[in-house]
Write a structure and sequence with these properties.
This protein is α+β, with helices and mostly antiparallel strands. 17% of the residues lie in helices and 28% in strands.
């Protein structure tokens, strides 16, 4: 038998004392840099209004944005440049002028190139070169290495590295400006050209490519100039085959996609670039900057590569507004919205309130975006930024950002940044500057969400509560969810009798299962008519399951009159148990129904007929984990310590004097501890080799079982030692018992209010001869706060 120590057992059962664990700080990589754009939501559509991320473009057309390469030393490269052939003429002079102003930019996991554009230490590079830098609060730091040109024309790397902070960055244009901290005075700098390059013009690029020597120059010419979005859309249309070719309208959509993911002017040149060259200068024969090395594109398996550089026109606009101080970098939720957008009614009150796109959720808390009744296009809303969001949540690797527009002026003026267990709030000015706010008491998100309208705060707690881990609003359970809040329902025939009986509805915010268990409505319709019945709010529902976030509702028609009359609300999705219950009268919440609290949420046998029960059971098993469904209204309605998870680890708990008396069953979401109080499970001296099978077969004869699912706990007792539970105590959080059930010999469950008072772990419920040994075992295993005195 696998053994765990008494110390480990105590750790497993720490929940009995009501203690909460504080996770240890994780040593995880820091997040990638967000785009340094003002967190404003009301500006017109712009290059930052990304419809999809660049990765989607790369997958579609084979465009490869080359990020920084590995360090040259790790790649086995010499930290110096090759000599320039003297026959190159003008290129030699260009190299002597530009190479000393070209630098190595190192982030945490790689390196790229930058070019000094001001003698005071401002350096231009790519966003993707600095994106993996080191965070200091909301500032992003990288290391810069300079080079010097020797008398024989070789660039030598200087020994001292310098710290540089990001002052401005644009993820979509792939540009960034950094500035050295305490760098040398009067640094060599490259002038940004005032004249734009033209196709056929001679140019040269410099960089620190990871496939050659450092400070390498490649000469060539400008091959083409334009907006890559337009060219890629044409290529996408021409590279298709037959039915895969887009229509003209779809081609326009493709172009729109690229305009928002690769928005700026680019130069295509014959200067070969490679990883590590990113951020290096593309210069004309006068040594002036006409572009910035950005990325290359390959044509599938063909040995053809196109080299691209950010156009100097984009560079001029970008460097014209570089702040003097390092930027506090906050992402723009609109610019970070990636993938296909979807609108949803997250709180199921019949009004749209959520726009989701990738890792971004935008919340219209006053629900006025669709107030005019017009049909809203999610794609158009995202393009025009016309969704009137008062809050937004963005998940970016290890960080979560929550933005708030408290005065409804189309500008997010407050943001909370959560990283691990640390939350910091900032006030955002419209000019992009920020101020760190004093640490607030209690939940940082709720402190920042200081809406003047209580209804908006309440809606925020409901629709963003799960994602942000907000304290649960007790009033949530009192709301009957709108079962018809979806826009599309998928009919199915769960029992395979040739008639529809189930409708499945999914949205970004919720999932709904509607079961016509007696087939009084759906059973008389074909699939198309069944979907129409949903749109007309006439699906003949006998059992409905509504899931949103970490909450679920189950609604029942117990008497078959066509009206739902009971609503069970889950404690949380992990438990599968009921945390609150109410009768329903004319679709509204009636009286509490506490007799259901602590039992399973999904109980098809609450339906009135055997045929309805069978059909509902079949439908639930198709859509829900079977372990969460009550198979009967007896022991099946109670959580089962042996079957709460399909896979779990069984182990004997090593307690001195109680060998082979305690077994722990640990799953991802559950922990059960079985106690053989009279020590009669193992007749032989040793336990069987296969403990899992022995316990699963019910051969371990426990008189007491403790089960925890999420925050909830159950204590199941076999007080008369007949191998059946006859007393169940339920504590929704910690050790405070709020519900007690007794189970008679026939398996009928009844509420036992008089047994609620007292601790979760009670030795006195057993026969007197077992009191002393049970008390001693519980004292050795559990915390005093959970024990009967």
């Amino acid at each position: 038998m696998t053994q765990i120590s008494s110390a480990a057992a105590a750790a497993l059962l720490a929940w009995m004392s009501g203690a909460t664990a504080t996770p240890a700080p994780a040593s995880q990589p820091l997040p990638a840099a967000p785009a340094a754009v003002p967190a404003s939501k009301g500006s017109p559509a712009s290059p930052e209004a990304a419809l999809a991320d660049r990765a989607a473009v790369e997958r579609l057309l084979g465009t490869h944005v080359r990020s920084s390469a590995r360090s040259p030393e790790a790649a086995g490269l010499k930290p110096r440049a090759a000599r320039i052939p003297k026959a190159k003429g003008d290129v030699v002079q260009v190299y002597k002028k530009v190479a000393p102003a070209t630098v190595i930019v190192r982030s945490r996991n790689g390196f790229g190139t930058g070019v000094i554009i001001d003698p005071s230490g401002f350096i231009l590079t790519n966003h993707h070169v600095v994106a993996d830098g080191e965070w200091e609060g909301m500032r992003l730091k990288v290391m810069v290495e300079l080079g010097s040109l020797s008398e024989d024309g070789i660039m030598e790397k200087q020994a001292k590295p310098y710290i540089a902070y990001v002052h401005r960055t644009d993820k979509l244009l792939d540009l960034a400006v950094i500035k050295l901290v305490e760098g040398p005075a009067n640094l060599p700098a490259v002038t940004v050209a005032k004249k734009d390059p033209v196709p056929g013009e001679a140019v040269a690029s410099l960089g620190n490519g990871g496939v050659g020597l450092l400070w390498a120059i490649k000469s060539g010419e400008v091959a083409s100039i334009g907006r890559l979005a337009t060219h890629l859309a044409i290529v996408a249309a021409r590279e298709c085959r037959g039915a895969t070719c887009p229509t003209s309208a779809e081609e326009d959509d493709i172009k729109g996609l690229f305009e928002r993911t690769v928005p700026g002017l680019v130069i295509q040149s014959t200067c070969t670039i490679s990883p590590g060259d990113s951020g290096g200068p593309l210069v004309n024969q006068a040594g002036e900057l006409v572009g910035l090395n950005a990325f290359l594109r390959t044509a599938g398996d063909a040995p053809v590569t196109a080299n691209f550089h950010v156009h100097v026109a984009e560079v001029r606009r970008f460097v014209s507004a570089v702040p003097a101080q390092p930027a506090s970098l906050f992402p723009d939720p609109w610019a970070e919205a990636k993938g296909f957008p979807r609108l949803a009614d997250a709180d199921s009150d019949g009004s749209l309130d959520t726009l989701s796109a990738g890792e971004v959720l935008l919340y219209d808390l006053d629900q006025d975006s669709g107030a005019d009744g017009a049909r809203i296009s999610p794609l158009e809303v995202l393009r025009k930024r016309s969704f009137d969001a008062e809050a937004a949540v963005l998940s970016a690797e290890e960080r979560t950002y929550a933005f708030f527009d408290l005065d409804n002026d189309q500008h997010f003026e407050r943001v909370v940044v959560q990283e691990g267990a640390t939350s910091v709030a900032y006030q955002l000015a419209k000019d992009g500057t920020s101020t760190e706010l004093p640490k607030a008491e209690g939940n940082a998100y709720l402190a920042a969400a200081a809406f003047s309208d209580p209804a908006m705060l309440k809606r925020f707690k409901v629709i963003a509560g799960e994602q942000l881990g907000l304290p649960e609003d007790p009033d949530v359970a009192l709301v009957v969810p709108d079962l018809y809040s979806g826009r599309f329902a998928l009919p199915s025939d769960a029992d395979h009798d040739g008639k529809p009986d189930t409708l499945y509805v999914a949205s970004p915010a919720s999932k709904i299962l509607l079961i016509d268990a007696d087939q009084g409505v759906l059973g008389k319709k074909g699939p198309r008519e069944a979907m129409q019945a949903y749109l007309e709010h006439k699906a003949g529902v006998d059992l409905a399951v509504f899931a949103r976030g970490n909450k679920a509702w189950a609604l029942y028609d117990r008497n078959g009159d066509g009206l739902l009359d009971l609503m069970l609300v889950s404690l949380d999705m992990r438990t599968g148990a009921t945390g609150a219950a109410y009768t329903l009268v004319d679709g509204k919440v009636g009286e509490p129904a506490p007799e259901h609290v602590g039992l399973r949420l999904l109980r098809p046998r609450l339906l009135p007929t055997a045929a309805a029960v069978k059909r509902a059971m079949a439908s639930l098993k198709v859509h829900v984990d079977g372990l969460l469904i009550a198979t009967d209204e007896s022991y099946g309605a109670l959580p089962n310590p042996l079957l709460e998870e399909g896979e779990a680890d069984f182990a004997g708990v090593e307690l001195e004097g109680y060998e082979q008396a305690v077994v722990a069953i640990e799953g991802d979401e559950s922990l059960a501890v079985l106690m053989d109080l009279d020590r009669d499970s193992f007749k032989a001296a040793r336990a069987p080799a296969d403990l899992n099978e022995f316990v699963a077969q019910g051969k371990f004869k426990a008189e007491l079982a403790l089960l925890t699912l999420g925050k909830a706990s159950w204590a199941l007792y076999d007080t008369d030692r007949d191998h059946r539970w006859d007393l169940v105590l339920y504590a929704p959080a910690g050790t405070e018992v709020t519900q007690a059930f007794q189970v008679n010999k026939q398996g009928k469950i009844s509420v036992a209010p008089k047994l609620v008072a007292g601790k979760l772990l009670r030795w006195s419920v057993f026969p007197t001869p077992m009191h002393k040994s049970t008390q001693a075992l519980l004292g050795a295993l559990a915390q005093a706060a959970a024990l009967e005195e």
